[in-house]
From TrEMBL:
InterPro entries: Metal_Hydrolase (IPR032466), TatD-like (IPR001130). It comes from the Bacteria. It comes from Serratia proteamaculans. Keywords: Hydrolase. CDD domains: TatD_DNAse. This is TatD family hydrolase. GO terms for molecular function: hydrolase activity.
C-alpha cells in the first residue's frame, strides 16, 4: 500500500529545485510525497516562496527569518514579515524557519533571541504555528518557548538532541521533526530518541537540499527522500508502517492547515 506523505521542511526555493519545479514535484508525487512545506530563511525570499505556493498545488509557504542569517535581520525585515503575515496570503501555514543557533561562528546570540522573540510574538498575533531551527541551543530555546506561549505551538525541525531535550519540547506541546540524520548508523543517539518518542509527536521532513541521507552524501537532498526517512523510522520503531504513516499524516494536519 502506498502511503501519503508530507515533507514538512524543504527549501524548495533553492537549487536544484528552482527552475525545475514541475519535474521535482512529479518525482515527489511518484514517491507518495504529495505536500511540501517551504520555509524561508531571509526576507528577500518571502515573495518567491509565496509565489511558489500560489503556482504549485503541492507547495505551502512558511515565512520567517533564520538565525544563520542573523547579520541581515533588523527592524525593516521584521516589519516586512509582519506586513506579509497581516495580508494573510493563501497557503501560508507557519512562521518559519526561525530559532536559535549556537553552532555558527559569531552567533550574536542576544540579537538572535531578540529576532526570535519578535517572531514568536507575530506567530501569536496571527495565530500561526512556528517551524524552529535549533543547534546546540535546545535548552535556551525551550526556555524561550515556555515564556512565549505560542497558542498554535510548532515543530523543532531536524532534531538531533537528547531524549530529555525532546521530551521538554513535547511537554510544551511542540512536535519533533524527523529527518535524514536517522539514516546514518553512527547517529545512534538520534536513532534511539526517534525510536522512543511518542508517535503522536513526530513529523516527517527532509530539509532538502540540505541534510543528505546516508548513501547520498555530496548530493542535494530531495523531497521524495522523505519516504526513505520514513522507511528508516519504521525499522527503528515497533509499530506497523501503516500506523506510523497514519500518525505522521495526522500530526501534520493537526499542526498545519494544508488546504488551498
Amino acid at each position: 500500500m502506498m502511503h501519503d506523505f508530507t515533507d514538512t521542511h524543504c527549501h524548495f526555493d533553492f537549487p536544484p529545485f528552482s527552475g525545475h519545479e514541475s519535474e521535482s514535484l512529479a518525482l515527489a508525487e511518484q514517491a507518495g510525497v504529495r505536500r511540501i512545506i517551504v520555509p524561508t530563511v531571509t526576507a528577500d525570499r518571502f515573495v518567491r516562496v509565496l509565489k511558489l505556493a500560489r503556482e504549485y498545488p503541492p507547495l505551502f509557504a512558511a515565512l520567517g527569518l533564520h538565525p544563520l542569517y542573523i547579520a541581515g535581520h533588523h527592524e525593516p525585515e521584521l516589519e516586512q514579515l509582519a506586513a506579509f503575515l497581516a495580508s494573510r496570503p493563501p497557503k501560508l501555514v507557519a512562521v518559519g524557519e526561525i530559532g536559535l543557533d549556537l553552532y555558527m561562528e559569531n552567533p550574536q546570540f542576544e540579537q538572535q533571541q531578540r529576532v526570535l522573540n519578535a517572531q514568536l510574538k507575530l506567530a501569536k498575533q496571527y495565530d500561526l504555528p512556528v517551524i524552529l531551527h535549533s543547534r546546540r541551543s535546545h535548552d535556551q530555546l525551550a526556555a524561550m518557548l515556555r515564556r512565549a506561549e505560542v497558542p498554535r505551538r510548532g515543530v523543532v525541525h531536524g532534531f538531533a538532541g537528547s531524549l530529555s531535550q525532546a521530551q521538554a519540547f513535547i511537554r510544551l506541546g511542540y512536535y519533533i521533526g524527523v529527518g535524514g540524520t536517522i539514516s546514518y548508523e553512527r547517529a545512534q543517539k538520534t536513532r534511539n530518541v526517534m525510536a522512543q518518542l511518542p508517535l503522536t509527536s513526530l513529523l516527517l521532513e527532509t530539509d532538502a537540499p540540505d541534510m543528505p541521507l546516508a548513501g547520498y552524501q555530496g548530493q542535494a537532498n530531495r523531497p521524495e527522500r522523505a519516504v526513505e526517512v520514513f522507511h528508516t523510522l519504521c525499522q527503528l520503531r515497533a509499530e506497523s508502517p501503516d500506523d506510523i504513516a497514519a500518525h505522521l499524516q495526522h500530526n501534520t494536519h493537526s499542526l498545519f492547515t494544508l488546504v488551498g
